[in-house]
Amino acid sequence: MLSQQEIKDNMVRFESISTEEAAQLAGVVLDHIQLKSNLSQMLAGLEFSDTSTKQILADTILSFINRLLQSRTATSDCSPLLKQSGLNDEYSEVIGKVISNRLDTVVKDLAEKSSGDKLQDLEWRFGLTAASSTGAGTPFIQMRLQFENIQPVSIEMGMTEFYEFAADIKRIQAQMSNTLSI
């Protein structure tokens, strides 16, 4: 993924292609994200500009979208964010419209695909290690997770680790709810 500065530096390169070609390019990048297909092969189907320029512009759009997804910025119009990144008004409007029209679908598709194997069963056991003459026993949690298509996973952790794990799960759940508007 390109840095914010690299994205800004590459924005002026969009002026080497037409706005229609920029819209096509944004659509191909979104297809790549949704379909998990080879971006270089998809770019070869576009008949404008040289391969190097198409790749740089596609990487710029891809990095912009990835940063947008990572920031969890809920926006119905990406145009202002593109302008802030250094893209001129005309291209910001065109590319922003393409991204904004498909962003919700992309987010939902990514959420469905990233769910991986579904958790079928969770067994847990709370325990206490044996006490010794030097100290009391320490509590622990053992969990066994059974997934759809893979071997069961067994985990043992202390209470501090368990509380951190539970907090992480709650944070992930809240982020998913915000992203998917659940």
TrEMBL record:
Record-annotated COMM domain positions: 118-180
InterPro entries linked: COMM, COMMD4/6/7/8
Gene Ontology annotations of biological process type: signal transduction
Family membership: Belongs to the COMM domain-containing protein 6 family.
Protein name: COMM domain-containing protein 6
Organism, scientific name: Trichomonas vaginalis (strain ATCC PRA-98 / G3)
